[in-house]
Amino acid sequence: MQEKPIRTLESRIVYQNKWSRVREDIIERADGQRGIYGVLDKDPACIIIPLEHTPEGDFLTLVHQYRYTVEASYYEFPQGGWEQGEDVDIEALARGELREETGLTAGKMTRLAANWIAYGAMRQRHHVWLAQDLTQGEAQLEAEEHGLTVHRVSVDEFEQMIFDGRVEDNCTLAAWATYLVWKRRS
Q1: Per-residue pLDDT reduced to its tens digit, 14-50
Q2: Nearest Cα residue to 47 out of 170, 141, 151, 175
Q3: Would you say 154 and 58 are in contact if contact means Cβ atoms under 8 Å apart?
Q4: What DSSP state is assigned to residue 69?
Q5: Distance between CA 69 and CA 94 in Å, rounded?
Q6: Which domains, from first to last, does the chain contain?
Q7: Considering the entire predicted model, what is its pTM?
Q8: 3-state DSSP call for residue 81?
Q9: Gap between the Cα atoms of 123 and 99, Å rounded
Q10: How far is CA 141 from the centre of its chain?
Q11: Which of 4, 16, 129, 164 supports an S-S bond with 94, CB 3.0-4.6 Å?
């Protein structure tokens, strides 16, 4: 591996809460120029694709929730993290997020990939899971998920939702693309 083009000279946490840390780094580029880099650090998270194959067709379970940062509500795959550091059991996290948000329990979980979320400004790993053999139970929403609703839609409807603006979450889109490539290669 070649030398890193940016070197960290100093790093300090400027803000933190139970969900994230904001870090300000003083950096030096390979040409000697110095600057400041702001980084949002978050613990690992999972996004889950709940997929049912039925005689009537293939169906997905989505959640619909308000996202404060963009002041709008959208449909997306269940996703989240537990704020337990880097050593969290990723499959347990995925199963837990699926159960918390949708009430679903998966008989089969397949890890598809791990992606960085918005790595130009944030440091967070997002693990993509396919959940199958689903059993419905009761959701266990956290306070931050107040108003979240669960929706079962056909794959065709979901793909239409991407183009009519009901699904705009890039993590959901990346997870679906990952699944489609995995499916084609399997």
Answers
A1: 999 988 999 999 999 999 999 999 999 999 999 999 9
A2: 175
A3: yes
A4: G
A5: 24
A6: 6-41 (no CATH), 43-185 (3.90.79.10)
A7: 0.91
A8: coil
A9: 26
A10: 17
A11: 129
